[in-house]
Amino acid sequence: MDSRARGLVAVEAMIEARKIQKLGSSSLIVTLPRNWIKRNDVKQGDIVYIIDEGKSVRIIPASSKPTSNSIVMDLSRLKDPRLSAMTVSCIYTLGYDEVELLLSRDLDILTTLSHIRSSASRLLGLDVAGHEGSRVRLRVVIDQTRLDLKTTIKSMANTIALAVEVLERAARNIDPKPKILEDASYIRNEVFKNQHLIIRLMITNGHMISDNGEHAHGLLIGTSLLAIIGEIILDGIYKIVKNNFRVSKETIMYIERLKKLVPIAGFTLSTPSIKRGKEILYNIVKTREEISQRISEEGLGRGDVILLTKIDDSLKTLQIIVYTSFCAATSNLILSK
Predict the structure, then answer these.
(1) What global pTM score does this model have?
(2) CATH number assigned to the domain covering 70-140
């Protein structure tokens, strides 16, 4: 048996069929393989993190390793509980594993702690480990060595594509308003989580200080712009729900086109390619020209104008992302002296 065949057998041995079971009135569960449980030393009550990768998911156990990057941060001069909570995301992106926050004694500790817990819950793997008086301990419990930067960037792009899908459902009036708003809230939290996780991975895994600094900065800019696209799309969703807009089939067609372009752009951002960058840039420019012409037509409904403008704003931002990635790909053509 050749090495390729042995590799296929090894992969096949790891694939198991598991039946989805129902738990309660709305939850679905599936059991974990015994060998995986032993390999990862997972016990009942342990925390695992589920990474949504589109049509597949990845399960990562919480890290049991001792923390190696700890700091104490003095927030006693911050008299607003919300400001203290806002520092949590900053601490997370800077890559610290364990942080002790020294809060102002003038604050209502329970209120401040509630704000801090809320901020921590939006970040993957960050837990409030405990508090004593005005001291609060935060700890990152996920083993980020098991996380891949490229996969996380693609996950971010898939989340934006999901936002476009919700926009399409809102435009088609398929789902009730509460469902649309619930999905929009979920997407906003996912965008926030992915954006901060990407920055943390780039800093802690050395991407920001590597020889390929230009590409690193491109990734940072690109993921930030993806988050902006998410906000543009979410704003479109809220406007549809609030104003009960009805839009034409042509406008929905452009929403569908944007939904297809976003994941491709995310893949191009994570894996720069001159050829793929050129192709998607052509499609974006062509689509924007069509939208511009459509907006200028007389008799177009207010809902169509607003949504087409949102789509064009998203495409314009997507164009910058892809161009940044294209430039990163061209850096491979530079000959060393």
Answers:
(1) 0.78
(2) 3.30.110.20
